[in-house]
Write a structure and sequence with these properties.
- This protein is an alpha+beta fold and about 325 residues long.
- The protein has two domains: about 180 residues, Gyrase A, domain 2 (2-Layer Sandwich); about 70 residues, Elongation Factor Tu (Ef-tu), domain 3, CATH 2.40.30.110.
- The protein contains six helices and 16 strands.
- The chain has a six-stranded antiparallel barrel with strand order 11-14-13-12-15-16. The chain has a five-stranded antiparallel beta sheet with strand order 1-7-10-9-8, with helices on one face. A five-stranded antiparallel beta sheet has the order 3-4-5-2-6.
- Strand 8 and strand 9 form a beta hairpin.
- About 40% of the residues are buried.
């Protein structure tokens, strides 16, 4: 089991009577259909279908809470404020209100119950949130098997991480291990695969978009690519023998021609070799390629994602 606390996150609180319809007409997912106690991943796009920000949207009492990476919180707030006209909506940076602990691993749910004995998680209730009784340092919890392993995220008060570590005596893992595990799981990440240059369709996942909700910013491009065309690039995995890692932001080459770019890399603790995520040109018919490492150019194999099959239950 791995414990990451504090897990680096930022939060925006969206309040006001028009908050649901405001976000529904902007974001890629069905916010009107998001029941209380549930969460959904969603994006704000520009009109070319490129991603301005990615967030987990939590339906909380009296607010919609957007969970983002710390570095995207302020830009996301500014982007949303540009669309405010006369709606009764308040957008507040709530990053200092919460601290997040992430617990992932085969026995993570068992360990989480030791911290929150009142939590019961039957089945794989992914992105299902539960409130915690008053008096606990945990405000609410969410089941999220993002690493292909059972996982639980505990949303605590601002000083909750210090209390949790003191209570459990646990030693938190370094975020670099989480990064390696999420690459193993083939999960794109804001600032790496999810950037202002990324068209939503290039990620190859439809978990952050609804094709039945109707209009949102960038919807025409996303729908056209899905039903009538194809994305210019596709997310791909790369494997390199040994400990050398592909260098992030360097080209992927085939016959000396650039066919893609590396976006994330790490040493896989499971495979015991270098792995990477990146984008390949759509339709590139190759199985091997050349990538830049610290030691020079190296042969890489195009590898299906995820690198490690899901062990979520």
């Amino acid at each position: 089991m791995g414990l990451w606390v504090p897990f680096p996150r930022g939060f925006l609180s969206i309040q006001g009577k028009d908050r649901v319809i405001f976000l529904h007409r902007l974001l890629t997912h069905d916010i009107k259909g998001l029941p209380a106690g549930q969460a959904k991943p969603a994006c704000l796009l520009d009109r070319q279908g490129k991603i301005i920000f990615y967030a987990i949207v939590h339906a909380r009492p009296e607010e919609l809470l957007l969970e983002l990476t710390p570095e995207s919180t302020v830009p996301a707030k500014l982007a949303l404020e540009q669309y405010l006209i006369s709606e009764a909506v308040e957008i507040r940076d709530a990053s200092h209100d919460y601290c997040l602990a992430a617990i992932h691993g085969a026995d993570s749910l068992t360990q989480a119950r030791k911290l929150c004995p009142f939590l019961d998680w039957p089945g794989a209730s992914l992105l299902h949130c539960k409130n915690v009784p008053e008096g606990s340092d945990v405000i609410f919890a969410m089941r999220w098997d993002i690493l292909g392993l059972p996982g639980l995220h505990l949303y605590m008060s601002a000083n909750g991480s210090d209390k949790l570590l003191k209570k459990t005596g646990a030693t938190p893992e370094k975020f670099s291990l989480f990064d390696a595990l999420r690459i193993e799981a083939g999960v794109p990440w804001p600032g790496r695969e999810i950037t202002a240059q990324t068209i939503l369709n290039e990620l190859g996942s439809e978990e952050m978009v609804s094709f039945t909700k109707g209009c949102y910013v960038g919807q025409e491009i996303v729908a056209r690519i899905k039903y009538r065309a194809h994305p210019p690039r596709v997310l791909a995995g790369f494997t390199v023998e040994g400990t050398d890692l592909p260098v992030v932001s360097t080209p992927v080459l085939s016959n000396s021609q650039q066919v893609g770019v590396i976006t994330s890399s790490a040493y896989s603790p499971t495979l015991q070799k270098g792995i990477a995520l990146g984008f390949l040109q759509y339709g590139a018919d190759i199985s091997d390629c050349m990538v830049q490492t610290a030691s020079g150019m190296a042969l890489a194999k195009i590898t299906p994602l995820p690198f490690i099959p899901s062990q979520s239950t």
